[in-house]
Amino acid sequence: MDSLTQLIDGFGTALTPTHLLLAAVGVLLGTFIGVLPGIGPAMAVALLLPVTYGLDPTAAFIMFAGIYYGGMFGGSTTSILLNTPGESAAVVTAIEGNKMAKSGRGSQALAAAAIGHFAGAMIGTVGIVVLAPFIAAHAVDIGAPDYFAIMILAFIGVTSVLGASRIRGFASLLIGLSIGLIGLDEMTGQSRLTFGSLELADGIDVVIVAVGLFAVGESLWIASRLRHGNDGPIPVGRPWLGRDDLKRTWKPWLRGPVIGFPFGAIPAGGAEIPTFLSYVAEKKLSKHRDEFGSGAIEGVAGPESAASASASGTLVTMLTLGLPTTATAAVMLAAFQQYGIQPGPLLFEREADLVWGLIASLFVGTVLLLVLNLPLAPVWAKLLKIPRPYLYAGILFFASVGAYAVSGQVVDLIVLFVIGVLGFAMRRYGLPILPAVIGVILGPAAEQQMRRALQISDGSLTGLVNTTFSVVVYAIVVVILVWPLVRRFTRSRQPVG
Asked: Is residue 273 predicted with pLDDT exceeding 70?
């Protein structure tokens, strides 16, 4: 009841004209910045830090929260329309969303993403109010073996349901893990696969990999086939969601937060793993699983809802423990420290007005995000009316700008197009793209958690399975691997009638 009273007071803070305006500006800036490949919400918040020096802390963080949610949604817009993820959490959306756009259903995909973000953010923000102490208390107990087990689950889950065969899925994963090895070993400082280049010592940014494999690879693939097919504009299709679309999406919208929120609250979690797992879950549960890979709307609604709820979960851990689980949360933590505020268990007591005003602004920003972006879905979709040669030339241009913006180095452009050629080759030989991106995102973290677990157990492999949580996760992995074999065996034993 005390939390509810403080939340009502927070709405009194968030609904002042100045704070409403800042929330709207944050949502708009976040959406537009999220649309640009390589310039995600973390960079947006970092760039705007100096701008907020003249604002009071509450106003600054209300604006930052709008940028965070807006950036998450903006990244999905280019994933759907141009197959170009604006940030890593939008990678999964490109799988089904871009296929929908190519078949003339771009407006429906964007609407499903917008409502998914609304549902995920609303449920996730309620989770902040109700479950923050519980989630934070349990997140502290999760150790290196548990992190490693979760990442193995993500690897196995996605490679098992994508592509023409499991072998191709694991081959794609191996490519991503190899790219993830590039750079300095965080524990020993030894360089790996840098070929003597100092520019590669920091590794390859995941945004460059995602944009190269998705955007550049797709553009080269389309360019190689334009003369063999229709090179006219892609149809936009009718706006809004039909009754059948709503029937297929309401359950994924509600399931996404169940997966996304807890993972966002786990230190070192973020939105990547829950979006991957949400996609896998929707493919398993859908009655239209044959449409997956060719434009299933559930594959947009579920992951987008999970990503938005994960953003809320991220704020739980940052506010209650002072632990940032994403790059954006890390920048926001730096912003707190800039104002002389230290997030942690005492934050809710010492800065109650700021915290509850921020939480209330999340509800307000979520509504603003839906109100602003749902009517814009048909407008965004009209980008697809551009003739395809010009459209994909534009994609290459913006992909190059986004890659260069990551660090301002020419070598990033070279790496971008090398990875783009690799993406083209993967399409040519039927290798799915997503496992490679997963390998790059989670590979280094999985290696680090595995080595920590082995160090704690003095090199014993039992250190990887010495918790109940990790044993349960590995049991799920075994089921995922063995179940198709068991099903195939039982079918072969059935008598032909």
From this structure: yes
Query: Distance of CA 95 to CAs 78, 275, 325, 374, 405, Å?
Result: 12, 12, 25, 21, 25
DSSP state of 216: I
How much is the mean pLDDT over the chain?
A: 78
For the chain, state the CA radius of gyration: 22
Domain locations in the chain as residue ranges:
2-491
Tens digits of per-residue pLDDT, 151-163?
888 788 767 655 5
| Amino acid (1-letter code) at residue 380 | W
Instruction: Identify the residue whose tokens are 């800065």.
Output: 351
| Number of C-beta neighbours around residue 141 at 10 A | 9
Give the residue with greater pLDDT, 294 vs 415: 415
How far out from the chain centre does Cα 385 lie?
27
Provide the 3-class DSSP secondary structure of residue 213.
Answer: helix
Counting other chains too, the contacts that 464-467 makes at CB distance below 8 Å and 24 or more residues apart are 464/145, 464/148, 464/149, 465/145, 465/149, 466/145, 467/143, 467/145, 467/146
Q: In 3D, which of 184, 217, 213 has the Cα closest to residue 200? A: 184
pLDDT digits (tens, 9 = 90+) for 374-422: 777 667 666 666 776 777 777 788 778 777 776 778 888 888 889 989 9
Instruction: Report how far residue 103's alpha carbon sits from residue 62's, in angstroms, rounded to the nearest whole number.
Output: 38
